[in-house]
Amino acid sequence: MALDGLENNNLKLIIFGGKGGVGKTSCAIATALSLSENFKTLLISTDPAHSLSDCLEQQIGFKEVKIEGNANLSAIEVVADKALSKFKTEHFVELKRLLETSTNLDSNDIDQMMTLSIPGIDEVMSFKTIIDFIEEGNYEKYVVDTAPTGHALRLISSPKLLDEWIKVAARMRWKYRYMITSFSGSYEPDDVDVFLLSLKRTVKRIENILKDEAKCQFIPVCIPEAMAILETRRLLKQLRESEIISQQIIVNHVMISEEGDFCKQKKASQFKYLKEIAEAFRNLNRIEIPEFAKEIKGENALNQLKNYLFVTLQDKN
Ligand SMILES: Nc1ncnc2c1ncn2[C@@H]1O[C@H](COP(=O)(O)OP(=O)(O)O)[C@@H](O)[C@H]1O
Ligand SMILES: [Mg+2]
Fold it and tell me: CA-to-CA distance for 82 and 75, rounded, in angstroms?
């Protein structure tokens, strides 16, 4: 089996998720390389332990860079704190005014509040950055490499968190609006209202893409080991709860070789887990990737992985 449907024109966003060390970064890069053969592609890492640079053997940072020797592929690392501080700088006036008009805090308290982080808001800003890229439309495909499961889930649930925050802020504003109306008889929406509305739209924009199977695919990466299977089950369950349905799964590090005792034993130990995976995720298109003799680094190894991921696509060409 090979990864399916990623070349559909409507499909914009492909997110890889899973336990630490299972091969998310390698698969995300190989997928981006394959898609860039036909589409202008942006590879995005939201993992704070950014590893794109290592695997691609090229420095990737907070600004988009072209991948050497590939005119169709660029990459960027989205750092949550940086995305958040950019947001705070851009909306400092509205955020401050929101606190001034909606709370009884004095200016010292407000200054202190402005430096505090709202839980989950940095992930929201990471996702907002991704959605902004998609809406700018400079690329046809956006491939996202995430940090281990917990982080990916926070990223996925970030719109819900932001929505709750907006509700609280709107309720605080409602009191302010009521007060103004009772004193002056009318209320004109101000910059803060416009700001809250634009945040609400951000939530909707994120949800619209995430929940649309035609526009977004979340691809879990798993390995034939008990803990990884457990974590993948949990990941898929939580994705379903967020109305995100995965269609395919990558099973990496599958031992093919039977040469020598080590390989024989490894293969035997993986047998029951591969069966369990086939059963547990029977509704998903399953792509098995063999254990490579060496780590996946540099062009040759990545091309090899790309062939395993997209072999039937290649056959068609
Ligand atoms: N099929 C494989 N065979 C051998 N090494 C692999 C394979 N897949 C990934 N690796 C190596 O395993 C390590 C972790 O992979 P990586 O893609 O960084 O995982 P993650 O992003 O999930 O943490 C890397 O050194 C990578 O080169
Ligand atoms: Mg990684």
Answer: 17
- Among the bound ligands, the one closest to the CA of 291: 1
List the structure tokens of 243: 């109305």
Question: What SS3 state is found at 76?
Answer: strand
| Mean pLDDT calculated for residue range 205-221 | 93
Token pair of 100, please?
A: 């001034």
The angle, 0 to 180 degrees and rounded to 10, between the axes of the packed helices 121-136 and 149-184 is 90
- Which residues have CB less than 5 Å away from ligand 2 (the ion)? 24-25, 51
Q: Whose CA is closest to atom 5 on ligand 1?
A: 295
Q: Which residues contact 271 (CB under 8 A, 6 or more apart)?
A: none
**Contact in structure between 97 and 192 (CB atoms under 8 Å):** yes
Q: Is 163 exposed, middle or buried (0-12, 13-18, 19+ CB in 10 A)?
A: middle
pTM comes to: 0.88
User: Is 47 known to be catalytic?
Assistant: yes
How distant, in Å, are the alpha carbons of 35, 51, 60 from that of 317? 14, 31, 31
Q: How confident is the model at residue 314 (pLDDT cuts 50, 70, 90)?
A: very low
If DSSP codes are grouped into helix, strand and coil, which group holds residue 107?
A: helix
Catalytic option among 47, 109, 212, 315: 47
Report how far ligand 2's centroid is from the alpha carbon of 21 (Å): 7
